[in-house]
Design a protein that fits this description.
The chain has one domain (9-112): Arc Repressor Mutant, subunit A. The chain contains 6 helices and 4 strands, in the order αβααβαββαα. The chain has helices spanning 10-19, 29-36, 42-52, 81-89, 102-105, 109-112, and strands at residues 27-28, 64-65, 94-95, 98-99. The radius of gyration is 14 Å and the shape is globular. The two termini are 15 Å apart.
Length: 115
DNA sequence: ATGCTGACGTCGC
DNA sequence: CGCGACGCCAGCA
């Protein structure tokens, strides 16, 4: 709270939350945004993912989808198909850039991390 | 310094 | 039911 280091760029916060996503689970930008307390700024979460590739630590951005469970940012991956491949590899079924049983694989930080 | 865009989400018409 | 616009934060031209 009073510690300045807690004030890390909200980007770092996003990376740490994403890194805590268990294998075979997925979450949405809005969920993370809400968990961090920025609420409506889900866009910034996605933007953070863009910077994730800058991070030294590995960030499973492929586990982060939009509210529809759609692989909106798959084109930002390298290659784009790697996102779906990574998800399927974890046991998640993806069809037409859409995660099947999205809700079943949904991982809410606000719930799992039990605020 | 100002403005636009961007891997979203929600409300309104 | 479908489409559009706004809000939010940060990076970049």
């Amino acid at each position: 709270m009073k510690d300045k280091r807690n004030q890390q760029d909200f980007f770092d916060l996003v990376f740490q939350v994403v890194r805590q996503i268990p294998e075979g689970k997925v979450t949405s930008y809005g969920a993370i945004a809400r968990y961090l307390g920025i609420g409506s700024s889900a866009r910034t979460v996605g933007w953070a993912m863009n910077a994730s590739h800058h991070q030294k630590e590995y960030v499973p951005a492929h586990r982060v989808l939009n509210r529809n469970g759609q692989l909106t940012g798959k084109f930002h991956f390298n290659p784009p198909e790697s996102m779906q491949q990574a998800l399927e590899k974890e046991g998640i079924v993806v069809n037409e850039d859409q995660v099947q049983n999205f809700q079943h694989h949904y991982w809410d930080p606000a719930v799992e991390l039990a605020l």
